Please model this.
Amino acid sequence: MKGYAGRVLRVDLSTGRLATEPLDEDRARRFIGGRGLAASYLAAELGAGADPLGSENLLVLATGPFQGAPLPGHDRWTACARSPLTGGWGDANASGPFGTALKGAGFDAVLVQGLADRPVYLWLDGGRAELRDAAHLWGRTVADATDALLAELPDGAQVACIGPAGERKVRFASIVSSYNRVAARSGLGAVMGAKGLKAVCARPARPVPVADRRALAAASREFVRAMADSPNLQLFKLYGTPGAIRAYNALGMLPVKNFLQGTAPEAEAVSGEALARTFRLTAETCAGCPVWCRRRLETSDPVYGPVDPRYGGPDFETVGSLGAACGIFDPHFLARANALANAYGLDTVNLGLALAWAMECTARGILTPADTDGLRLQWGDARAALAMVERIARRQGFGALLAEGVGRAAREVGRGSEALAMHVKNQALPAHDPRSKVGLGLTFATANRGACHLQGVHDTSLEAGILAPELGLDPARYRGLSRTAREHKAAAQVAAQDWKDATDCLIMCKFLAYDYGPGSPGLAARLLSAVTGWDVGWRELLLAGARCYTLGRLVNLRCGLGRADDLLPARVADGLDGMLEEYYALRGWDASGVPRPETLARLGLDDYGSGSGR
Amino acid sequence: MVVPERTVRGGASMEKGRSEPGRASASGEGLAVTVELFAPLSDRLGASSLEVGLAAGATVGDLLRRLAANYPAFRPFWPAIGEPAYYPFLVVNGSSLSLPAGLDRGLKHGDRVGIVPPIAGGSRR
Ligand code: SF4
Model:
């Protein structure tokens, strides 16, 4: 089977047993890889009662057919499990060479269950797997642990590890590969920490077999040529993702002060342009990608403590959540906070919105310094915020409460603070205001992992007329349609959710794919056909995306998340009125948000049942 | 992974308030507006804002056509002839203006018109 290693590894940390099993072609074609492949195992095997931080949770690290293939956007990997943050479906996605290493070491995916009785790491090399002692790594930051692992492993090894936050089961702990390539969302670092798995390390040995190199090269060339015309990619090339901050500020779409405001004049100080003036930024890219959207950050003048350049510079979401949402418009704060988040292994979005919530609670007198370890968490206070980051990572005092994530923290504090907690299914909102992107708000409400800007489509793209014909986005309907309009938005979100899930099955960088970049479903299907030798059309690809999306929903239903959780925080919920019903109907779900049997049959998922079983 | 290094320094050659050659006319029968630019347009033009002179009674549509005629960087968003590839987002004196509905909106002397290219923003995670 071209495009795949053809095997998955099962790891039981309780017994130390390692076993490989073949990846059969039927499963590969049906679910493609990445998140879809992971969902096919989780939906079949995860018990309804599996504690996200317990032995039964199944953690899947997965690759797809694109990893290691010579095409732009392939340099990625994914992690999935039951999320300790949402209590339901959890996934996260990271760039970097770890994905190619995992597959090149001989495994399309690694499935981890059980709990180790002492810290271990998993080493994958040349088709062999080994659990090794990690006692000497426990407690160490991401860079320290990565350095130590690279020193003891052969050249070419790649490391994905957790930091102290994951070890302490902070519910929004990340998994960090290659120092700064972060699988951030959903708290999957805490799943590794609970399991006693400090790291997974892999060395790529085998070249990935590709079916038709000429066809792949031709489609890749076309892809790269089309990137030159994308305003988004031009912007990311110039300033990295924070290049979008000025535009978001002008359009009133930033989450300033916990989404109280959409804009602030001070935000100019943390724009991509301002970061480039303040620091020495070096552009970095992923293998095979001409966009170079990533930044290494060096400063000779670290105001708030050391900034290790290996942790990278703050991205758009980090500027939005730690900067704008906390009212801290200070590039030096962002450099330090981003480095700390990556050192400890924390998702910056959930971190920023937890701090922003505490700041709003302080401003309203709900919290006082007596509640927050003597720190006055005021809007814009960089030093108090940084001190609290340290306390969250170590679960000290009030930091232990924030380590539960903003949703749980607010329910614990009560006194009206729940209304100030900006999350869906306990996953904090990314830096896109649903009031100014009403359709994306529907995706925030319905996405399986909670509030997510990487699924569905940005209303701004539709309004600008950036459309993909394969998704049925008729220009007459969407071009010039206001980003705050509701009509036709549910249909666009359903179609785009299926497409974005398809990209997560292939594992293709979403920046290069519609609606960020020029990669259309048609082009992606051509790339997939060239890699695998299958004759895959875009309809089949979108169907696989719909399967992936639906399996995530089935896992959520099994975990007890359903219609009552498809909500937006009241502050930004206005646009959602009436759209949920339309959305369920378009999806073929009943009024309570459960996929109908005929919908499962149409998707070829009858064997996965309705989600309420097990 | 070995990645070749490339240093990025922002705001390289942005002159504030560069005038459009031979067009600014703030008095008499014409009017002048300030166009505020956002990346990547600002970088392509090497300016963060432009002063543009227009005839009395000019509309937002007239302004966009003038810019597309004089600056090729605008053409993907508003070509001189025919339909734009994409609509930019406009902010007139701090308020969003929808396209294409807003094309007929009249401009006044001293208006500030922000032109934001169609970008989605975000980070992969
Ligand atoms: S667009 Fe950015 S994240 Fe995506 S592949 Fe290119 S460099 Fe990597």
The beta strands of chain B are 6-8, 18-19, 31-37, 49-54, 89-92, 95-97, 112-116. Chain B touches chain A through 39 residues (CB under 8 Å). Residues 1-27 of chain B have pLDDT under 50 and may be disordered. The first strand of chain B starts at residue 6 and ends at 8.
